[in-house]
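Slide 14.
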Amino acid sequence: MPRRRLGVVLLLPPSVSTEIDGLRRACGDPSLGLIAPHVTLVPPVNVREENLAEALGIVRRAGASAVPFLARVGPPDSFAPHSPVLHLPLDDTGGAIARLRASVFTGPLAREVSWPFVPHVTLCDELAEADLVAAKQLLSHYERDIELDALAVLEQRRDAEGLRRWVAVAETPLGAPVTVGRGGFETEITPSRLGGPDVDAFLATELAAGTAGEAAGSGIGTRSETPSGALPLVVVARVEGLVVGCLIGWTAADVARLSAVLVAERERGHGIGGHLLGHFMAAAARRGALHVQGEDLTPQEGALLAARGFEPLHPGTLWRLI
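Slide 15: predicted structure.
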């Protein structure tokens, strides 16, 4: 049975990641570019394909049971003499990180470890003793508070050059998802930067079934890709853990781009598309978006926007909140 090499981490905010990558570059970190700055909760573990859904469910439940929090990172330290790793420790006085780690370190994501859990962000995997001392002295004033608001599942994959890179394949925001009632079934609506393997499988299944053309806002694969500098925004609807709809888009500056809305054929008529769009716009507004942009919007998408107080500036391409 195929296995997937996964890890569960807390990813840092983009601005902090850029800053810490600068420190990693200065320290000569050999893993720079192969993995983003992060706090490891579950180190690399091989998960059977048949257990992938269970693993993703564990991460989603862990995220739903927590809330975003601030943590102080720095100043640099090392694990010497046991390991020549330069890192930024995180102050976990409140125990939020330890609780998250305990929540995800179970089932197919559990594994044996050699060292006790210490929340940290690695700056360089291997440094000579003299370089460790010098780096700790030079960076001794580096401290800052960061907000941690999402869990991410990373997967190790080989790229075209044969390098093993860790790629984020799923993300779960910290905080309980919004739950809406729907004919006796509760639908969970979750916005994040990534969909995940279950969303990919949902899209593939719906498209293969030939239902996309009738979906509210199909066009998947026909609209432009996320441009450089834009931040993806994916909103997913789940019923009893199963994906029943998703909205794919992105934000950049004051524009939110609507790329596609797809609701499972059997679930249409229950207002799921409207909930997806409503949460998409709420998340986009928190990022500073004032306009909605889309190419070749379907009548269903236009109706969803108009029902939420938008008016078209240019037919089918740009809408403004009234």
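Speaker note: The chain has two domains: 3-173, 178-321.
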